[in-house]
Amino acid sequence: MHFPGSHIIGIDAFIREDIDRIFHTADRMRPYAHRERVTKVLDGAILGNMFFEPSTRTRISFGCAFNLLGGEVRETTGFESSAIAKGESLYDTARVLSGYSDVIVMRHPQSGSVAEFAAASRVPVINGGDGANEHPSQALLDLYTIRNELQSRGRDGIDGLRIAMIGDLRYGRTVHSLSRLLCLYRNIHVVLVSPQELRLPESLEVALREAGHQVTVTDKLEESIRKVDIVYSTRIQEERFASREEADLYRGKFRLNQAVYTQYCEPNTVIMHPLPRDSRAEANELDNDLNENPNLAIFRQADNGVLVRMALFALILDVADQVDRHARDVNWYTERRF
Ligand code: NCD
C-alpha cells in the first residue's frame, strides 16, 4: 500500500510488508505513548472523529493518538447530534466534513457505510468499525499484541501461531478483520469456537483454509483452548440481533475463569479480548478472577491501540520520518505503574 493519503477501510488492502511497516512505526511511537517525549509533528492538523455507535477504546484511543502527535480532535458522536438525523446523505456529509479536517475516523452501524463515505471524502478515512463487517485498526492492534506477547515469551514471528477465537464469530467485526489479517501469514491453526448459529461467515472460513491454515470448528470451549498460544474471546454483539432476548440465548456459553484456565490451558497461554468484556453475571465471558493472571493481556492490548493508531496517522499523513525531529522530553512527572 502507498500509505500517504490512503483510506484504511478493510484488511484486504494490505500485504504482509505493509503490516511490518505499521508495526515498525508503532514500535517507534512508544516513548510518545508512554509520555516520555512529546512531539508536535501534527501541529495544526485536525482529526474528524465521527462515531455513530457506542465506543470507549476506539474513539478515545484514536483521539489520544492524534493528540500525542500534536494534532487536534473534533468529535461527532451519535446521529442525533449530526445532520444525518435531518436526512443528510453520507455523500453530502463526507463532502462537507472532509473540508473541515485532514483525516477522518468513522464508526457506523451499517456494513459498507464507511467505504461509501470514504468514496466521497476529500481526505483519508479510517474505518473505526462498519456494522458487522470490519474493524481493521482493531485487527492490527490485536496482531501487534500477539506479536509482542509471543516475543516476550521467547517466540519470534506470527507464522505457526495457534489461536482460538471464541464467541460471536458471526457478527464480531474484530474477528472478521483478524481472520483476514491472519490470511497474510503461514501455517496458522485457527480454532473457531461459537454456537452453530453464530459461526464465522463461510467466506472467511474458506479464506483461512485457502491461505493454507488448519481450521477447526467447535462449540466446546474446554477442548478448544487446550493447545493454543492465544485465546481470543469476544462479546455477543447484542446490538446486531433482532432482540435482546435472542442475544440472551447465546450469552454466557463460553466462560473462561482461572479454574478453567488452569485445568485446560497450557501455561503461558495468552488471553485476549477486543473489549468491552461483558462482565454481567449472565455473560461473564472473562471472569474477574483472571485479573491477576499475568497472561491476561487485555489491558496491554488496549494500550497498544494508541501505538498502532499513531502509526496509522503518521503513515497516512506521511510524517513517520519527522516525528522525532519535532520532539522534546516532557516537563511533567510521568512515572506510570504498568
Ligand atoms: C469491538 C467493536 O466495537 O467491534 N470493540 C472495540 O472496538 N474494541 C468489540 C465489541 O464491541 O464487542
Question: What does this 3D model show about the protein?
Answer:
There is one protein chain. The protein is globular. The model has no long low-confidence stretch (mean pLDDT 96). The chain has 2 domains: 11-134 and 304-329, 3-Layer(aba) Sandwich (Rossmann fold), CATH 3.40.50.1370; 136-299, Aspartate/ornithine carbamoyltransferase (Rossmann fold), CATH 3.40.50. With 338 residues, the chain is an alpha/beta fold. α4 (90-97) crosses α5 (113-120). It has helices spanning 16-28, 30-33, 57-68, 90-97, 113-120, 136-152, 173-182, 202-210, 221-224, 244-248, 258-264, 298-316; strands at 37-39, 46-51, 72-77, 103-108, 125-130, 162-166, 189-193, 214-218, 230-233, 270-272, 327-329. It starts with 15 loop residues before the first helix and ends in a 9-residue tail after the last strand. It contains 12 helices and 11 strands. The strands form 3 sheets. The protein has a 5-stranded parallel sheet with strand order 8-7-6-9-10, with helices on one face. α7 links the parallel β6 (162-166) and β7 (189-193). Residues 57-58, 129, 135, 138, 173-174, 235, 237, 274-275 line the site of N-carbamoyl-L-aspartate. N-carbamoyl-L-aspartate binds next to α3 and α7.
